[in-house]
Amino acid sequence: MKFLSSKIKQFLVLLLKILVVGLAFYFIKNQLATKEFNWNLIQDTLQKPKAWFLVLLLLILTFLNRFLEILKWQNLAKTVEKISIWQSTKQVLIGITFGIVTPNGIGEYAGKAWFYNKKFAGTIVFLNAVCNGIQVLFAVTFGILGTFYVNALHPFIPSNYIYLFLGVLIVLIIFLRLFKNLSIKGYSLQTILNNLQQIPKKTHRKNMFLALMRYLVLVHQYFILYTLFNVQIPYLTLLAVVASIYLLASSLPNFQAIDFALKGSVAIYLFSFFGVNSWVVTLVAALIWLLNLVIPISLGSILLLLFNPKRVQKQQVS
To answer: Average pLDDT for residues 105-121, to the nearest whole number?
Structure first.
């Protein structure tokens, strides 16, 4: 009976792996099918002076973008148990693969928790929220600054809405300060703060530094691509537009698989103020999506098919 139960579990795990990988590549295939790449534009761009230097720099930043995330997770996961760079790589890439088939990437939490004993599941979910939360904090902070900067150059948000936003933000901050002990289903802001305090300050500082570096790497991927396609926009203005795009697009519910389509549509609108060709904007969004999501998911899918969670959990117990 135990043998039958074990075989059934193995079959269900294999079925889950195949389902996740299949859905991941199904979403990718559908998105690629809706976009026709202008290969002539890409070919002409690569023939320009210093083009390959920029491509090499772009590839280095692409590696750093994911590697910094791997270092972030290794830094936080050590509060449960010390893991190597390779173990962190597997957990991050498999988490991304789970995330692509769920809204706003929530499957990433289950993907990482799969590597740990069930008694650590809640802790791993919380640590992953901390890992992603600091990234969101930088995206929101720089996104607000970028949006205000772009709006000052080309007003597209009425002043009344800006004042309303600032007013709501102030009221929200005051509310959270006054009612941080307000409990909803056993959870409160104070509970979250207490859990955060249990993480060493050194770990928090490293997490913040790596998150900031990753954000800077990401926006400079855009800068290099637009430079490659000969878009003439001042450096700070371009970074402000990119920061604004991430804020506006990320505020809407979406699947990671269609993330570039959403960001691309927002980018076309904002870059239109600066006379940038919509095709170039779409192409850049698609290339960022391919580099930062499709490649990691492809690697994560391979690792997912090879990964044996039962074996990992046995090692942790022993």
So the answer is: 83
